[in-house]
Amino acid sequence: MNRIPAILSVLAILCLSTLHADQESPARRRPCPIGIAIVEEAQFPADDVDIMGMRLCFLYGRCANMYGLDMGIFGCAVDGNVFGLQLSGILNDIGSGTGTLQFAGIVNNCSGEFYGCQLAGIACYDGDEIRGGQLSIFNSAQKLVGAQVGVFNMTESTMGVQIGLINITDKMKGLQLGVVNIIKQNKASFVPIVNMYF
Question: Which residues is 104 bridged to in the sheet?
Answer without folding.
Answer: 88, 120
